[in-house]
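Quick question: what would this complex look like in 3D?
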Amino acid sequence: MANDEVTLTIDGKTVTAPKGTMVVDAAKRVGIEIPVFCYHEKLGPFGCCRMCLVEVEKMPKMATACTLAVAPDMVVKTNTEKVEKAQKGVLEFTLLNHPLDCPVCDKGGECPLQENTFKFGSDDTRMEFNRAHQDKATPLSPVITIDRERCIACQRCTRYSDIIEQEQALVMLNRGFNNEVGTFDNQDYDTKFSGNVIDICPVGALTNTDFRFKARNWELKTADTLCAHCACNCNMTFSSRLNKFMRIQTRTNDHVDDGWICDKARFGYSFVESKNRILEARSRFNDEERVLETKDAIALTAQTLKKIADEHGPESIGLIGSPYATNEEAYLYQLMFRQGLKTNNIDHKAYEDLPGLPINHYDFEQVESSNLVLLIGSDPSEELPILDLRIRKAVTRKGVKLAFLNDQVTALDRFAETALRYDVGSDGDAIVALAGGLAEELGIEKGKGKGKGKEKEKSKNSCGIADKDMKALVELVRTSMKICVIYNPAALSAGSMVKLRQLLQTIGKIPTVECGAIPAAPATNALGAVDMGLLPSYYPGGLALTDADEIKKRFGEDSPLQAGLSAMDMIAKAESGELKALLVHRSNPVADFPGGERVASALKKLEFLAVHDMLETETTRLASVVLPSIGPGYDEGTTTNIGARVQYRKRGLVSESLADWQIISKMAGELGIERNYQSSFSITAEIAEKVRGYEDISKKTIKNEGLSRQAIPEVLGDLDGSVSDESKSKKGALRLRVASYLFANDKILDANTSLAHHFRSSTVHLNDKDAKKMKLEEGDAVTVSSAHGKVSATVAVGDRCNSGSVVIEKVSDEQGVSALQESAGISWVEISKE
Amino acid sequence: MPELKLLTKDIDKKDLHKLSVYEETGGYGSLKKLFKKKPDEVIEMVKASGLRGRGGAGFPAGLKWSFLAKDVFPRYLCCNADESEPGTCKDRLLLEKTPHLLIEGMIACAYACKIETGYIYFRGEFQHASDLMDEALKEARAKNYLGKNIMGSGFDFEIHTHLGAGAYICGEESALLNSLEGRRGEPRLKPPFPAVEGLYSKPTVINNVETLCVVPYIINEGPEKYASYGTEKSKGSKLVSVSGHVKKPGNYEIEMGTTVRELIYELAGGIRNDNKLKAYIPGGSSTPMLPADLVDTPYDYESLAAAGSMLGSGALIVIDDQVNIVESTLRLASFYKHESCGKCTPCREGTRWMWQLLDGIHNGEGTNQQVDKLVDICDNISFKSFCPLGDAAVGPVASSIKYFREDYEALLKRNAEGTA
């Protein structure tokens, strides 16, 4: 350790800091502030603003403390007359042509330029000429406004675009005094992460268009909270004034976000004030709609569910929980259904997933310290943007290699060492081929039956990946020292999850490879939902139904042990009339689950459908009872990100309605589960007591940066009862992959969002070979149809997927792409010109 | 006092830029000797010759070559032909008249430093020189002076030319590298120095045209011969571009240590109209100007530094007594305001502010306090800017006030009288 530490002296104080630390950061350790503008810890040294000049013994010139790495016995002086003159001089230059519009500048009150001027500047100006004028408020994009007059050319924003985003979308234009921040050809600067430049701008040059002039920052009430969009759970500061939403800013947590948030986090929070919010409970029986007191709706729901369960048996009711809900809500809901209604018909998704992992569960920091990141079916750019940014950092600055096993091209492909593309629906075969190749190399799994061997052979030829490419990937995996596998369960076909787990086990057996995985389902708390037992075959903490003793010990003697139905099976049983009642929590199966109208018609057959949601959806419209959910912004509770970090989501706004956990606990109370929760943290405490892996989680332990939950042991049990019923291909039909799109026009990003400029029209991506065969060209209007439905789309031709497959991004709820999807197996579609 | 023509001996020979003519003068003769030596021996020879960088900083060339990061390949050689310093036109002479000499020098450097790829970064306006160079490179390739296994030596080397886009800052070595990589022409942070992380983050030698052109002489004649010329610490000859108010402006190759007086009055024929010398800028516009009474300063690195200026790129600008120094200074300040890359605050803002003040003073609107303020602004830029461009911009302003404050006061007085 001593070798990595350097001891030096700053203003007479002895400082010890790790090798490579910049003097400016070392000074902070002993409470010495060296002023900076251009320096930003995440961007690295640059040295252009010259604000941090210090004297160093034995150096002929003053040095910039932000570019000077600590050295043994270095003697730094930050408070000499010479340094003070330099600071005053540099500030004078910086302010020379800076407008004096602090009173109307959004940055006023939280402005490094203001602060440094007060602390280190002169009281007076010596500038006798008119200040140079530049363009005032100019849109840099629909969400960012640039005031070029205020810019001090520190290049933080342009370096961010270059180093962090790896886009070089924002650049310096022109030279010398005329230099300015801009884009090529004056295009919008509208990347997925553009908003971060607002936070890092040390002056009021880059401002949040939504927030401009809405409030002075000292009037704001702030909440240190988490983003509730994707499963990264980035940390952010949520500001409000008079209980009205004002703005969102980054809040650095290196374990999670590395100091950045995506634009969906920053600009995608208008839903907290959406007109579409469900503010009161209501019922609808025989086409008669009535507004209810929430307490009456609670009683009605609980009693009806109980009545139906008593009449038709517990297998006649079910719960579709929410992958967006907090751990506390998820835990309570499964408790209510398992202990109160004695059913395991509990799920939260339309795909297969399993709790636990056969190898380590890696977090985001491990992505950087690995030397190979293997993405399987995952598209972080659209699904988990901050993970995407972390991968960019790993590849470009940490020397990490990136490999893809996917059915489509993603934005990260350009950083990949190798990107193998299997045919849509052949993920299982591709995974088996990789696992088989590794097993062969390792000489394990030799004595297996011939049938297995044949299957291996077949898969190599049938997944659309050339043998030699697969061999190269096997070699890459085998020879990596530390590998991080990131897979998206939601993008895998029925039956592939078990194969994937086998692949992970095989990788775990390579003696020279340290390995871990990140299960990267995109929904906010997808991992928490799995951990909390929103699964038909697993109790919280990954307890399989077969582990009856443990279940009974933790959750009571009369815990139901009969396997439950998966969400898709519940919908199927609703259609057949066997399922009578369903409760849906913050989920919209009609729009989001495969089937579209088929889901709606099944739900209509239910005797009783209760929907507990935050916004009106296609599903709430079918409900017998609607319960209001307050949701992110107003709610409080913990979520578990895909890196297994449990963090606390604080409320930013106060709601007069009951919190979701209060509603659920009251319903559970109606069913005889008496608990006396004082706050969401009382439920967290119960989770720590009952749920494996969450033993250390408490209000105290997760306070600042959250805490990783313990590993949950993998039990390869039943796979949610899903059965693969591969539908037969039709001649000329293509395999459909529905891809994610970050800024889809759904209930969260509705027409009122300031991100509407990102909305896309329905597009079907065709391989150029298929397009040629079908005589289709870029831009053609087509109808994509399956046995069940139709979707209009515009053709895009390229190499996004293999020949024989098509990719449609889910760009809006209105697009209705789920109508084309089969509930299991490959969705075959045909394309015809409109 | 005659010139010492080590580089320019045959410079006036017709068609010297053609390979056949160049070979007649003994051109490429150094290569045979070169390939008989080990690379390290070549570096030692250059070290022993005392050759210092002719681009401006005067860093010992052999030492620079020996600093290359060990065992990191590929390495690159960049020839800095972005000759943009006002007053300087000596590299242009070499490039246009004797391009093969540069190629020969680059081969020697590349061989010594185990480099296989070289670039010549031309000033944007040097289209003609660049075209001639492309022709010369073609000829050299055809004769296997370049390419694979040069003259059976087993050594491979190729040279590419690149034209800048017209920025003074790209003569600064790290900005040159940025520009060559297709990035914005702005200086890079040092360390890492180019010898460790230069072009494409690989070890890189960057030398001025004239520096590289000296190398064949050292190989041919031996380092001792070269070192026998000049002063104790400034060895050999120096090409000096003499401009301004002299009768015979032009490039003169002199022995280091020749006095400025000899340069002006003997080689350049004296001052126009036999006027009195007022001041001279010894090493290009960025070096502080010196007054006439320092005209006997020997033209070498140490003597000019002792006199309070620099040898710089070797451009002597002569100013006679018909000139108000404020006017010359204003012109130079305008140049630096225009050429500041804008990366760092003191240079970007300071060069403009200095120009505004000088413009006001020149227009008769200045005050004595403003002259004092100029001195203070110079101090606030000096050694505080990111790269030497800021210091360069300060040079003429600070020195003009130091030596010729009366010229400023004359304009202020006019102002006072005018308003009276």
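Answer marked as accepted. The interface with chain B takes residues 45-51, 53, 61-62, 67, 85-86, 89-90, 92-94, 96-97, 126-129, 152-153, 155, 171-172, 174-179 of chain A (CB under 8 Å).
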